Every structure is written in structure tokens, then in C-alpha cells.
């Protein structure tokens, strides 16, 4: 769990007899997440809500990290590795393990109906076969087949890109 501190920062009684409560959660990096809710009964268990909200904030930070990784793949980058000057090492995610990040960022592309989506995760070639087996639950044969599918997608996209200069918005150019 990345949330290291949660506290109720304000608990005020409103004129209508309900409470307005503010809470703050702090993660292991020092980032603060605040929320506020009002209109709750005087007997409302704010501590239970605080604990539940801490879990929700923790889950959302990991989900946001995965979404950022997917966006990086879509932009042509590699969210799972750092270039160390000629060799690549695994990134250290802020809110989950590398394996969780790798699974969360790659599986949506693997499950896409359009096989060309695999082009976006071409940098999975930097992931070892053993890591692929671990994060995707595959056998050696399945990993090899997946690697072949990625290469086919890359080659297909390269062929399609050769034709793009001849088209303008899907229409064949004159001349």
C-alpha cells in the first residue's frame, strides 16, 4: 500500500444538523490527496470512510500509472524501461511492482481486436522471455508466437506507411 498517512482534517457540524468532513491522504512520495463530503448524519462513521477512501486513493494512483504507461506506448515510447546509454533497465514504478505495471500496460494492446495495435508495444522485445512468461502467464511457445505476431504487425505497418504519401485523408492524391 502506498498511502502512508490518512487523516480527517476537518469535521464540522452544519446548520442543518449534518456534518461536512474533509480528509487528506499522503502517499509514500509525499503527494497529498484531499477529499471532502458533506450532508452526512451526525452518527456517520468517518473513520471507516477514511480507511475505505485510503484504499480507493491507493488503487487510483496505480491505475493512473498504468494509464500513463498506455499513453506512453501509444505515443511510441517505452514506459517499462529506461535507456541507460546503450542498454535498457526496468523502470521502478511509483505505485506498484514492475510486473503489475507491465501487465497493466501491455494486456490491453494484446486483447485489441485490431492486430496492428501490437505495433504500439513493439518495445516488449526488451522484456525477457522469462518475464513475459511471468507477467502474461505464457509458455515459451506462446511467447514465441506473440513475438512473431508483434513482428508481423510492425512489418505490416511499415508496408502501409509506404502508401500514406499517396493519400490525403483517405483519398488518392492526383499527380
pLDDT < 50 stretches: none
> Main beta sheet, described?
3 strands, antiparallel
What strand line-up does the widest sheet have? Answer: 1-2-3
- How many individual β-strands? 7
Alpha-carbon distance between the termini? 61 Å
Oligomeric form: single chain
The number of distinct helices, counting runs of at least 4 residues, comes to 4
The percent of residues in helical segments reads: 40-55%
Strand content: 15-25%
> Which value, in Å, is the CA radius of gyration?
23 Å
The overall average pLDDT, rounded, is 91
- The secondary structure category is alpha+beta
Order of helices and strands: EEEHEEHHHEE
Name the overall outline.
Answer: elongated
Question: Can you describe what's shown?
Answer:
The chain is an alpha+beta fold and 175 residues long. The chain contains 4 helices and 7 strands, in the order βββαββαααββ. It has helices at 46-74, 98-110, 129-136, 140-163, and strands at 3-13, 19-27, 32-40, 81-83, 88-90, 167-168, 171-172. Helix 1 (46-74) packs across helix 2 (98-110) and helix 2 (98-110) crosses helix 3. It is elongated, with a radius of gyration of 23 Å. The chain starts with a strand and ends with a strand. The model has no long low-confidence stretch (mean pLDDT 91).
Amino acid at each position: 500500500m502506498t498511502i502512508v498517512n490518512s487523516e480527517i482534517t476537518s469535521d464540522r457540524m452544519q446548520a442543518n444538523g449534518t456534518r461536512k468532513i474533509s480528509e487528506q491522504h499522503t502517499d509514500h512520495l509525499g503527494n497529498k490527496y484531499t477529499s471532502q463530503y458533506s450532508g452526512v448524519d451526525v452518527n456517520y462513521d468517518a473513520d471507516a470512510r477514511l480507511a475505505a477512501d485510503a484504499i480507493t486513493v491507493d488503487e487510483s494512483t496505480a491505475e493512473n500509472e498504468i494509464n500513463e504507461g498506455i499513453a506512453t506506448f501509444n505515443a511510441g515510447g517505452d514506459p517499462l524501461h529506461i535507456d541507460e546509454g546503450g542498454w535498457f533497465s526496468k523502470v521502478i514504478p511509483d505505485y506498484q511492482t514492475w510486473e503489475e505495471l507491465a501487465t497493466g500496460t501491455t494486456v490491453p494492446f494484446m486483447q485489441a481486436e485490431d492486430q496492428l495495435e501490437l505495433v504500439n508495444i513493439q518495445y516488449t522485445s526488451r522484456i525477457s522471455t522469462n518475464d513475459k512468461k511471468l507477467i502474461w502467464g505464457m509458455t515459451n511457445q506462446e511467447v514465441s508466437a506473440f513475438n512473431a505476431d508483434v513482428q508481423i504487425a510492425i512489418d505490416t505497418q511499415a508496408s502501409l506507411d509506404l502508401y500514406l504519401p499517396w493519400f490525403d485523408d483517405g483519398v488518392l492524391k492526383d499527380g
